[in-house]
Structure formats: structure tokens, C-alpha cells
Amino acid sequence: MIITCAVALRFLPAGLALALLVAPAAAEKLADAQLQSFISGKRVYLAVPLGGEIPLTYRAGGVVDGSGEAVGLGKYMTPKDRGRWWVAGERLCQKWQQWYGGKTFCFTVTKLTGNKIKWVRDDGKSGVARLRQTSPNAP
User: Fold this and answer.
1) CA gap 102, 94 in Å, rounded
2) Each residue's pLDDT tens digit, 46-77
3) What's CA 111's distance to the chain center, in Å?
4) Cα separation, 81 vs 115, whole angstroms
5) Pairing of strands 116-121, 104-112
6) How far is it, in rounded angstroms, from Cα 11 to Cα 58?
7) Is 0.85 surpassed by the pTM of this model?
8) Phi, psi (rounded to 5 degrees) for 87
9) Which residue in 15, 71, 107, 126 is a FRET match for 50, CA 20 to 30 A apart?
10) 138: nearest Cα among 61, 70, 79, 77
């Protein structure tokens, strides 16, 4: 058993170095102007429990729209709402008119491979969402 641990420890630094080289390409935490330009003009599809998605559109002027166009079970859970969004350092913040009682929530956003992001809300809740560019002529 001592030989097995010694062998594993000998290769550990190489494994860590490889992980560090691969990690930045796979996930990138966004902040400040980079986060602002990344999220602006995007529709974010949040997965809901038991299937479906809720789309949120982050407009360039700081308006976020929960259009009520949810799919799957999400369409039964989500009325329409509108709010404001902004970036505060490393966090994307939003305040809805009705959802969450109008309370402000902020998130850290990590860009994943493909068209996915990981979000972690300031209360510890987290998830993965997919996104796409919205049409420039969208209201």
C-alpha cells in the first residue's frame, strides 16, 4: 500500500499541471465589462425541475424580460415579468418587478464550453443554462 501511495503522489503534480492547462479552456469566470458584453443581447434558457426551460432575454439597455415563453413544465410555472439587470464587478445582478418579491439577486457567471454557462446565485443556489444570441430587431 505504501508503494501505491508513493507512485500516486509521484504523478500527482503532473496531473494537476494537466488539469490547470485544460481548465481555463473549459470554463472561464466572467466579470466587469467582459460579463456585460457577454450577457447583453442574449437569451438565457434556465432549466426547471422535472423538465423544460424558462427563457430570459437580457436586452442591451439593461432590461431583462421573462417573456412567459417557457417550454415543457416551465410554461405552467412562469408568468411574464420584466426587470432590470446590471453588472457589479464579478456579479450579474437583476431585480424583477414581481418575481422573487422584487428582491435583487446577483450571480457569478462562468462560461462553459459550447453555448452553456454555470451560474451561482448569492444565496448559494446554482445551475447550468444554455444561451443564444437574440435577433437585433427583437423588442
Assistant:
1) 9
2) 887 777 788 899 999 999 998 766 555 445 55
3) 7
4) 24
5) antiparallel
6) 45
7) no
8) -110, 130
9) 107
10) 61
